[in-house]
Amino acid sequence: MKIAVIGTGYVGLVSGVCFSDFGHDVVCVDNDPEKIARLDAGEVPIFEPGLQDLMVRNASAGRLSFTQDLASALDGAEAVFIAVGTPTRRGDGHADLSYVMAAAEEIARTATGYLVIVTKSTVPVGTNRKVQEVVSKANPDLDFDVASNPEFLREGAALDDFMRPDRVIVGVESDRAAAVMSEIYRPLFLRDFPIVTTDLESAEMIKYAANAFLATKITFINEIAALCERTGANVKEVSKGIGFDGRIGNKFLHAGPGYGGSCFPKDTRALARIGQEHACPMQITEAVISVNEGIKQRMIEKLRDLCDDSFNGKTIAVLGVTFKPNTDDMREAPSLTIVPALVGGGAKVRIADPQGKREGEDLLPGVIWAEDAYAASDGADLVVILTEWNEFRALDLPRLAVSMARARMADLRNIYAPDDALAAGFEMYSSIGR
User: Could you tell me what percent of the chain has a pLDDT over 70?
Assistant: First the structure.
């Protein structure tokens, strides 16, 4: 089957590459000539483990190509996936659908035969109805169906999530569209991965509800962590204890400096906005958004305490600034709140991150980028573990401590045991909820 994918960002590129690995003929479309040139040369513009090798292999096999020409991409295609950005709209918290609607209109003006227009982007409930209207208005004679197919990819584990999904959600209205979507995902169906077929609105809502629920779990355990610090409990033991309950589960119960990334902040704000527009406030989600911002501020105060109540004149090493390990994504990362507070307070900040420099150089001005954790920490007054990259999980703590001006650590991911850090020579060690 021939498939077109509009957008070669994170979702579009991963989806296109994986569809081609299913055996489909995939053409990825983007209006950025520089990005297309890089992709044609075998260069992936994002960091995602395994993606480049898989992309090159399928391109070499002739199943995957890249173009700026939508007409050639749609020629003979049975489905076109819209995988463009839906950033939070300034001023009202709603998802910006302008890129989605522009893509839908361009498809309508270019397509010549029947196809299923599939929204892969995360969009508010009712968006696929609007896509239907836009396409019908732009080309009343076009024979088409719309489908909603939200993605559930974790950055850093996207290929595995796509190839071995918990479930695939497909929202359709016609048997014809359902048959096309079934053929696209046939390799997963044959391996007994769940394919859930539902209506358009339910498919759209599933995406928002899932992300809001996961963000709530993260925020809940972060609040519990704050209470643990006051009561003497250990949040790691609490997480373990409640995680064994099958009704709760152990995922997303790791305390830290707050959630970030491209999905949770944007989608919780959008869901809250949808609730407001329908006079049905999402009070839990609204509280999650507020508490998550407060958690970042609490981290800043934790660091200030370790710096004797002032960042001024201190040298602080920050290990990890991407929102999570195994990605170069800086969107809504806690570092974007915490690091500027350190710099603004007069600290000299050195950063070590395996993939964060490319985006971080523009987003975090006034910092020094170090080669590794040891270079960042040399002569520092405080070392802060902000992202749990593997290379920060097995640091030589005695070496780190002896190289610092003052051996103090803020372990905001609970990587190390307090006793181990103190035994290694750290005079002060602070973590989350312990």
Answer: 100
